[in-house]
Design goal:
With 278 residues, the chain is of the alpha+beta class. It has helices at 42-56, 104-113, 152-159, 163-183, 234-241, 256-274, and strands at 2-6, 10-16, 19-24, 29-30, 33-34, 64-66, 83-87, 90-91, 94-101, 115-116, 119-120, 130-136, 139-140, 186-198, 201-205, 214-218. It has two domains: 2-87, Phosphorylase Kinase, domain 1 (2-Layer Sandwich); 90-237, ATP-grasp fold, B domain (D-amino Acid Aminotransferase, Chain A, domain 1). Helix 1 (42-56) runs parallel beside helix 6. The protein is globular.
Length: 278
């Protein structure tokens, strides 16, 4: 199979003229760098979680064709458990970001301007506080560097005739996932989705509601007004911020303890959400 694209975490291969093979590696990125340390089993956990979410949202058209290793011909053993055979779609160059809580870059802007990426959200909100309703805050999908926020008007120009439909669908997916996860003891603070066109219609593509594309917070310790512990790679970001790395040069290796605890967080998210071991 010919390599089609190598992302920060995933390698995508051309399977045949209509299908791609997406392989989730154990790489981890932070601050737009791929770290030199691997997170063992991370790719398998991300793949399994995406598959389970695609099944949960089986009523939403998506790109997944097959994930069972034995049913995908010609796939090397090293890809077992971390590969998805998918339909080849034309990606929409937008990150469909939905925020239910005020965190990260959203909180930083709110402190400065009282808005969330230019949208009015109300006064007196706290860090990590729940927003009045989920907000759609799209960004560009940058090939390199940071994704940049865009206005709803700019988004509509890019997404075209399906823009309103996809905005509603994104919020609906987030809302349903948030309600389900709460029953499992996890708050999904925000997530980013991707869509592409297949035969002229939009479908869900890429990963879905994983710790790499979402903020997962433990419900039992949730307390607005401060940053929250998480089951996602924010744990790694926080560690890197505690070092003297300048976020411009080659990043350092992660200590074994940080690697181990990161693996355990990913496993715990999978266990809580779907009662499966990582």
């Amino acid at each position: 199979m010919k390599l089609f694209k190598r992302g920060k975490v995933r390698d995508i291969y051309i399977y045949d003229k209509d299908h791609l093979l997406i392989v989730a590696t154990d790489r981890i990125s932070a601050f737009d760098f791929i770290l030199p340390s691997l997170i063992p089993k991370k790719g398998k956990i991300l793949t399994r979680m995406s598959i389970l979410w695609f099944n949960f949202f089986r009523d939403v058209p998506n790109h997944l064709v097959e994930w069972k290793y034995e049913r995908i011909k010609g796939v090397p053993e090293k890809f077992r458990g971390r590969a998805m055979l998918v339909r080849k779609a034309k990606p929409i160059p937008v990150e469909f970001v939905i925020r239910g809580y005020l965190a990260g870059s959203g909180w930083r802007e709110y402190k400065k301007t009282g808005t969330l990426f230019g949208q009015e959200v109300g006064e007196g909100l706290k860090e990590s506080g729940k927003l009045p309703h989920p907000f759609f805050t799209p960004t560009t999908k940058a090939r390199e560097g940071h994704d940049l926020p865009i206005s709803i008007e700019e988004y509509r120009e890019i997404a075209g005739e399906f823009s309103d439909e996809l905005m509603r669908k994104s919020i609906e997916i987030y809302t349903r996932a948030h309600e389900y996860a709460l029953k499992k003891g996890i708050i999904i603070a925000d997530t980013k989705l991707e869509f592409g066109f297949l035969n002229g219609r939009p479908i869900l593509i890429d990963e879905l509601l994983t710790p790499d594309s979402s903020r997962f917070w433990p419900l039992e310790s949730y307390e607005p007004g401060k940053p929250q512990p998480s089951f996602d790679k924010q744990f790694v970001r926080d560690y890197l911020l505690s070092t003297d790395w300048d976020r411009k040069t080659t990043p350092p290796y992660l200590p074994e303890e940080i690697v181990f605890r990161t693996v355990e967080k990913y496993k715990e998210a999978l266990r809580r959400l779907f009662d499966e071991k990582g």
